Amino acid sequence: MQPRQPPTIAILGCDTVVGRSLSVLLEGSGYETTLLDAYPTGIVDDLLEGAQLLLLTPRVDEGVREAFLGAMGKSAPQKADMPVIVLCTATDENLPKEGVISVPWPTETKVLVERIEAALLDVPAASTSPTTQAGTG
């Protein structure tokens, strides 16, 4: 049996100090990370290839955030169900659409990891794996 691959978290806003720091912290907690600039170019679903969760850093431009979230699942439908966590400061307004998990920023690494684990557990199995799995039990 192969060892379980660590979940990969795509981080939107990695061209900031916070984004890069989050990457280091999450990798230290056992995750893989994919770094996405705050103004990414390319097809959103391609940018999210291999990721199981999208994390938006604090203060990502509202227009970029809405466009990115709106484009998820357009070319790869399973990406539409990917869990999304947005780190928001007390001054953030116009938080993202329903279904997006909001976590106050700053926060402790432990709290962020707990939210990530909860979000990953809440995803239907079909959306996290391209293959179907036989049920057990």
From the structure above, extract its key features.
alpha/beta; Rossmann fold; 5-stranded parallel β-sheet; disordered C terminus
Characterize the structure shown:
The chain has helices at 17-28, 44-47, 62-71, 109-121, 125-128; strands at residues 8-12, 32-36, 53-56, 84-88, 100-104. It is an alpha/beta fold. It has one domain: 3-Layer(aba) Sandwich (Rossmann fold), CATH 3.40.50. The protein has a 5-stranded parallel β-sheet with strand order 2-1-3-4-5, with helices on one face. It is globular. The two termini are 19 Å apart. The model is unreliable at 126-137 (pLDDT under 50).
Number of helices: 5
| CATH fold-level topology | Rossmann fold
Tell me the distance between the termini: 19 Å
The fourth-level CATH homologous superfamily is Response regulator
How much strand content do the residues show? 15-25%
Overall morphology? globular
Number of domains: 1
Mean pLDDT: 85
* The CATH class: Alpha Beta
Q: Care to count the β-strands?
A: 5
Name the CATH architecture. Answer: 3-Layer(aba) Sandwich
Structure classification? alpha/beta
Task: Give the strand line-up of the largest sheet.
Answer: 2-1-3-4-5
Helical coverage, percent range:
25-40%
**Uncertain spans:** 126-137
Order of helices and strands: EHEHEHEEHH
Helix and strand layout, with pairings?
Layout: E1 8-12, H1 17-28, E2 32-36, H2 44-47, E3 53-56, H3 62-71, E4 84-88, E5 100-104, H4 109-121, H5 125-128
Parallel strand pairs: 1-2, 1-3, 3-4, 4-5
